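To whoever is covering the structure queue this week,

Two jobs came back overnight. Logging them here so there's a record in the thread.

Job A:
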Amino acid sequence: MLRLFLDADTPEALAKALRAVGFVVVRSQEVGLSEADDITQIQWASENGYTLFTFDVKTMPKAVMQWQAMGREHSGVIFCEQMPREAIGVIVRRLLNVAKVHTNETLKNVTLHLGAVWD
């Protein structure tokens, strides 16, 4: 199953739901990065082999481009539009679908966008 690093904007309820279905999840708060900038979070995820999951579609895409412009590789980034808390099941289902076709290795240097449309 995928190893996911959830940034500070991601609710704990999503982490619990992902762990319940077998994802290996680390939250930024659990490793002392709740106040870290985007580059630091990308670096931690990359150095530790975790794909970064974020709702930050405003500043994180720029940080990913900056990271890559420096010639650095990342372990994958999954962007998701903000959804109401009751949409956690939708997010988990979509991530399970991602995990059916990807591993952390195949997500290396890949960015995915889950979108905000409910299914």
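Job B:
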Amino acid sequence: MARPPSFPIRGAFPSADAVMSSLSSPVVHDDAQSALFDMGTHKAAGPDGFHAHFFQAQWKVGGTVEIVQNVFRGKKDISRVNETFLNLIPKVQRPVYVAQSRQIGLCNVTCKIDNQNIGK
């Protein structure tokens, strides 16, 4: 009887330690800047009321990277940064079911930057 082919997977996937290390690595200035400037400028604002355009226009003033880094370091209260509004936009005249609506999540720009930098 022929032996089935072997498919070695040892080393094919990162270790749990490597994954955890990458998730807790600090946010680099260039990564935060890239995440911010890749966002649409006037997409829906989050609960704080600011569009990405505000943060892009104020980038040289500073502060955005520090907020993001402080979230990763555990120095900033994440509940305010992670605050998100969920809006239902009806697809039909009188929706009865959630499926008859489009769901849109409105989160803060700093939260979006954090999310794009997790695991880099």
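Note for Job B: The chain has one domain: 27-117.

Please reply-all if you pick these up so we don't duplicate work.
Q.
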